[in-house]
Every structure is written in C-alpha cells, then in structure tokens.
User: Fold this.
Amino acid sequence: MKDMSIKKVGLGGGCHWCTEAVFSSLKDVIQVEQGFISSVEESEFSEAVIVHFNEARISLKDLIEIHLYTHKSTSNHSMRNKYRSAIYVFNLEDFEKSNFILDELKKEFEEDLVTQVVHFKSFKPSEKQFKDYYYSDSEKPFCTTYIVPKLSLLMRKYGKLTNIKKVEASIAPKATSK
Assistant:
C-alpha cells in the first residue's frame, strides 16, 4: 500500500542545479528529480525540480517558503523563460493550497512576487552527468559561488528542517582548504 503522506510538488525559479541542492539538503525530502517542467498554462519547458516529500514531517508551506527565499522570486529578469518562477502542482487541492500559501507569504517581501502556481503538464529529466550536481562535487566554482550561499541561508533560517550534517560535510572541504 502506498504511503499517503508522500506528496510531490514541482519547483522552478533558478538554475535546477541550485534548486536540486537546496531541496536535497532538507530532512524528510525523499527524492528530488532534476530536469525541465512544462505546465498546462505554459507549454515551454523551463528548469525545475520535482520534490517528493513526507507531508507528515515537512509541509508544503515550508517548501514554498524555502523556495521563495532561495531564488529571485521578486525579479522578472530576462531569463524567466528558462528559469520560470513557479510552483507546479499535480492536483486541484494543492493548486488552491499553494495559492493560499503564496498569498500569505507575499507579505514577507518588500517587492511583488513573480512566482506563479501552475498545473504540472510534463517533465523531462536532466542528463545523468548533471544529476546531484552539487553533492557529486561541491567544490566546483559554480557550486561555491551560487549554491553554497543558498545552503548557508538554509542552515541559518531553516536549520530544523535542514540535514545539517550533510550540508556541513559538503561545505567543510572548502573551509579547510583556505
């Protein structure tokens, strides 16, 4: 029998290497699928991840809040087609719930959020060599420049939800090599 507390949500906003690293660093996230997602509303694919999570242990609200704070959720920049700021949902209940959460969280931001809640349509996985990009070699310049600051924020602001040992182990080699 399938565990009914395991749910999934698609999240896009920035580079999927960054998004994958953030959500792979959380406790009670079961799996993160990195790739490209299209929605019913926008058939063009953009970089995103599908997060499978234990809803009894980590809430959709937690995931959406972390998502908003770990990408440029208020910036409508020129790369938005490639990096659509979105929450991709798989059913009507999560569509309504996500819109409610987004409406509540927007009060925490000085600028308007560009993040939209949309209906999931299709997924294309990334090529194998790009999966688990950060945790396969966290010392790459891209990782230290773009991903480590997001993980530092994650530990600082969402420490109770973060797998601190996993994140610290990935950052520690950089600290000792300086």
